[in-house]
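It is worth pausing here to work through a concrete case rather than discussing structure prediction in the abstract. The textbook approach is simple: state the sequence, then state the predicted structure, then interpret. We follow exactly that order.
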Amino acid sequence: MAADEQLRRKLLPEDWKWCLVRGKDAFGQGTSTDPLSTENTLKKVNSKRHRQTGLGVVTGDASNGLVAVDIDGPLAEEAFKKILGESWPATLTPGTMSWRGRPGRRQLLYQIPPGIRPLLGKFTKEQMVPELKGTDDEVCIRYNGCYSVIPGSMHPDTGKPYEWIDRHNGEPALAPGWLVNFMMESGKAQEVHSFLPASYLERQDASTDYTYRQMRRHFFMRGGLLEQLLAKEDGFSSIYVSEVWDNQPLSVENEEKGTLVGGCPFHDSNSGKSFTLWPNLNWYCHKEETGGDALKLLHALKERDIDAGEPTPIQLQGYLTEIAEVVGSHYPEDFRDTLTVKKETKYDTTRALLDHIREIGERFENPAEEEIELMILADEYGVRRSPADLRFLLAKDEAYRVSGRALTARELCLKTADPEFIIPEIVQKPQTAIIHGDANAGKTALCAALATVVVRGLPFKVRDEMMPVLAGKVLWFTGDCNDTEMKMVLLDADLEDNNDFIVVPDFKLSHKARFQREVSRHQPSLVVIDSLSSASDAGVDENKKEAAEPLYWLNSKNGTLWPACAILIIHHDNKDGQYRGSSAIRAAVSEMWHVAEVPEDKREHLPNYLNQRLVTNGKSRNGMKGRKLLSTLNDDYTVQLEDWRPEGFINADGQLSIRDRVLKAVRDSDSPLTRQQIEIMAERPLGDAAVRKALQRLVMKKLINQREAGGSTTRGGKITHEYFALKASRGESDNNLSHWERSTGMTEETPMGHNGTPMGQLADLEPKEAERPPNPTVDSAPPIPDQLEMNKVHLSRMGQPMPKKANVPLGNEAITGISANGTAEENYRDQIVAEMEVGEPPSWDELL
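Step two, the predicted structure:
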């Protein structure tokens, strides 16, 4: 495929910069010093006046730290392999993007970690094997001011296109340690602060004598405090203090370059060689893949945090004063020759800091602009806080403000709506879940299948019955798919003409205002974020707890800052088949669903297992852990999704849970049942709290419904409820949806609370009925409701047959006259089960 066609199809990163090439020469406006954006490149490729033969990607800072390693010739490859030893990137499996123009030659493409890019601003290109100079072979490292001709472009000597060895999914790997070391040793030392905003460099605290820029210069300049410190014996160890260097000391790795290696002060190092320090105190941690200059190292050591970043002006002045004392000078008195001008602050520091933080969050939707403003704000207030710290302070303030008075359990239950289940028991709102699996496990297709169920309100199999689904909109935030790929997802799911499926492209989790605005505007039932990695900002490390901060925000604000919805976040597994990242990510969400191939021990149930995936709930706050869904790829590319329970209602011990007994009893009945009838069918004691709670949960999860039993009350005057199954299919039975609609005037879409009233209406809960003593007196024994339609009730076998009893007449008269030989409950049950034959389940005629 031609180079420009790869770019047009988004097979290459859009944030890279380009130049048009004829052969190997750049021409036109696109050069290594004046590169073209992707958009402008494609415009010029389509222009007839240009006769390019391909494209060159510009390396260095222009393309976010791209660095090319050009291995040109067999001697170069041999020397390259000898230098690197075990670290040598194999020819066919280099672990990063790689291509060739001729046999025996290849080019590798890596990306420099963000933390050390500012230190390599003056690195252009350098020969890695000096002995090859003057030959036709070379190993050349190219960075700023260079470009590399990419595959799909024509090679000027062979007349054939450059070809990929490994496209590596269009993403270069991070630069390995050997490459970082070479570039840091070869690069020219420089004072680096260009990555800081000019407004930040000009700031100064009220108590500092100089601006931030001036104080940095006092530290780095020739003859400055850093140079004086390193010239003094034991000067380094008196300021740069780390206990790890007592056990894993810094030792010389390269005497010619003065490079030191040792243990890292910020994490345990088995080898004691994960930390590299160069003579100008530029540094790099190979495990954390981050580094910086001497000032950043000093601040990180003081704060005991590798990600401490830049010190505030007041902190920097404190460091300079401390160094001055060690080298025998005075700061700032000895630096009075530098003119300083006090500048007015941007923010009124007499106001509460939190007021400014709130206003900045509301004013700046762009997270980069917000971060700069928060840096300036922290500087002007002289606080030791990063932008992330300030946001965390604001979150704590918001949590305190929304926290209300203490509530009794009854008050809280009355004021709080039940969770609203979109798919009974499976998907509810509010809820936040991660769906993770290997690449190509079908995570996106699975979420698209769920979206199809929701937008169309299709029935969904739950516990072996097709259940009605609450139809609603779906909002899909994508950072993984381009528009063409997203279109294919929609075509496969037959959603191309659907107006209730809304796609929001190029999404980042830091776009909180955008997320809140879109969800409030469309009010979806289901939100999908595809995926966690692509939606995270550049530089966010999933292995650190900071990566979970947006997930905590999504989970805690769902239903408060925007209408409640179910949020599914697609994520990728690591090489061990587990979810990738910090344990804080797992802790931040309600549920974790793992998508994987069907294991061998389950395939006997699934003859089509090659086209199927098991989705297993690995973590749940709602008692769903271990639950499985089955997704099936159909011949028409649609995906069918259903609750999967091949073992039926029987668990490994051959027993039913109380909840499953209750559900089966209600489903097997042709008419609504009272709680007492359900207790009998489930073989539970009358007044059983487990049955009461099972009914409450099943109603809440939309698996069954309840209504008042025709005005019938218990002897205590409490209303008796009767329960019936909810099913997607409509039939003639009295408990189907059409009957419920006729008898109550309510439709199947009407959300119901756990007390049987429409959602949002406050009604008395039912716990009073459950508060009766576990062993009631003879007079308080509950009767079987008179209005039961006996000819419409089917009682299925729930367990072992009941023993045969003596023939005792049933009815209220018999109940009243029970002897006191046993408890009232035992006597009552003895009469109910009287005259039952062993082996066959009883009928209601026999029971009554």
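Step three, interpretation. The radius of gyration is 35 Å. Residues 658-847 form one domain.
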